[in-house]
UniProtKB/TrEMBL annotation:
It comes from Fodinisporobacter ferrooxydans. It comes from the Bacteria. The chain crosses the membrane at residues 47-66. Gene3D superfamilies: HPr-like. The keyword Endoplasmic reticulum does not apply. The keyword Transmembrane helix applies. It holds the Pfam family PTS-HPr. Keywords: Membrane, Transmembrane, Transmembrane helix. This is HPr family phosphocarrier protein. PANTHER family: HPR-LIKE PROTEIN CRH (PTHR33705:SF5), PHOSPHOCARRIER PROTEIN HPR (PTHR33705). Residues 1-87 form the HPr domain.
Length: 87
């Protein structure tokens, strides 16, 4: 199984809309995808899990993915959370 991690800086407020969109993006992929912040790791396909992280704008998170489409998953999620609001 192929596995990779990517560290990115968050440029979006993690409000209800942003988290919902992030989960929708993650759910398009078969890979297991996780977000890690402040030593806590959650499933990127879980709205409640992501909310428990309390991710702030400007912070750094680690995205990890394992599976056949891991690279596309990392690229899509990274592009979404590093894109400034209204961009």
């Amino acid at each position: 199984m192929i596995f990779s991690k990517l560290q990115v800086q968050v440029k979006k407020q993690f409000d209800v809309y942003t988290v919902d969109q992030l989960v929708r993006i993650a759910s398009r992929f078969q890979s297991d995808i996780h977000l890690e912040y402040n030593g806590k790791q959650v499933d990127a396909k879980s709205i409640m899990g992501i909310f428990t992280l309390l991710i702030a704008v400007g912070s750094t998170v680690v995205i990890s993915a394992m599976g056949n489409d891991y690279q596309q998953a990392l690229e899509a999620i990274s592009a979404y959370i590093t894109q400034p609001p209204n961009a």
